[in-house]
């Protein structure tokens, strides 16, 4: 894992499980969102200064159906993200989105919007962010 990786398995998880049964993840695992509307993963990233930054979510979706999530930053809706099929649960791809971050800690939450839940979530990285969320060994 890179020094600025925010691993999903170290984030705040509601209705999801840390798993490691599909190879290719970084860190010690990934989060399998429960297949329900409302399951979420919330990352905390510390931005050096306020401004627009690029969020990069690494994920896998072994189905052919999109697993969209709603995005919020510090509790404010910040659009939706599409996580289309990657071909296999072991094939990991990235989706990016530019968002406005505040200086200091930012809570970035991805919440499933369909009954299929979210994708398998590996990690979040963000430009302008120098800290990391590593799993507890
Ligand atoms: C399978 C797969 C899981 C995935 C799940 C899903 O069970 O092994 O990793 O999360 O499908 O459809 O969400």
3D structure, described in words:
- This protein has 137 residues and is mainly β.
- It has a single domain (6-126), classed as Jelly Rolls.
- The protein contains no helices and 11 strands.
- Strands 1, 3, 4, 6, 9 and 11 form a 6-stranded antiparallel sheet that branches.
- The protein is globular.
- The model has no long low-confidence stretch (mean pLDDT 96).
- Bound molecules: alpha-D-glucopyranuronic acid.
Rough outline? globular
Structural class: mainly beta
Helix content: under 10%
Bin the strand percentage: over 45%
Largest sheet: 6 strands, antiparallel
> How is the CATH topology named?
Jelly Rolls
CATH class: Mainly Beta
How do the helices and strands follow one another from N- to C-terminus?
Answer: EEEEEEEEEEE
Which consecutive residue ranges, at least 5 long each, have pLDDT under 50? none
- Calculate the terminal CA-CA distance, rounded to whole Å: 13 Å
* CATH H-level homologous superfamily name: Galactose-binding domain-like
Total number of strands: 11
Q: Count of helical segments?
A: 0
Bound molecules: alpha-D-glucopyranuronic acid
What is the CA-based Rg, rounded?
14 Å
| Number of structural units classed as domains | 1
Brief descriptors of the model:
five-stranded antiparallel beta sheet, 0% helix, six-stranded antiparallel beta sheet, 137 residues, globular, binds alpha-D-glucopyranuronic acid, mainly beta, Jelly Rolls, single chain
């Amino acid at each position: 894992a890179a020094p600025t990786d925010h691993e999903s398995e170290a984030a705040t998880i509601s209705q999801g499980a840390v798993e490691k049964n599909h190879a290719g993840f970084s860190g010690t695992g990934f989060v399998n969102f429960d297949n329900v509307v409302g399951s979420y993963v919330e990352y905390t990233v510390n931005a050096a200064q306020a401004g627009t930054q690029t969020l990069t979510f690494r994920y896998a979706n072994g189905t052919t159906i999109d697993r969209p999530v709603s995005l919020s930053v510090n509790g404010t809706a910040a659009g939706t993200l599409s996580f289309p099929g990657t071909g296999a649960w072991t094939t990991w791809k990235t989706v990016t989105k530019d968002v406005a971050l505040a200086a200091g800690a930012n809570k970035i939450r991805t919440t499933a919007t369909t009954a299929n839940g979210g994708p398998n979530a590996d990690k979040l990285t963000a430009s302008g962010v120098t800290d990391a969320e590593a799993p507890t060994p």
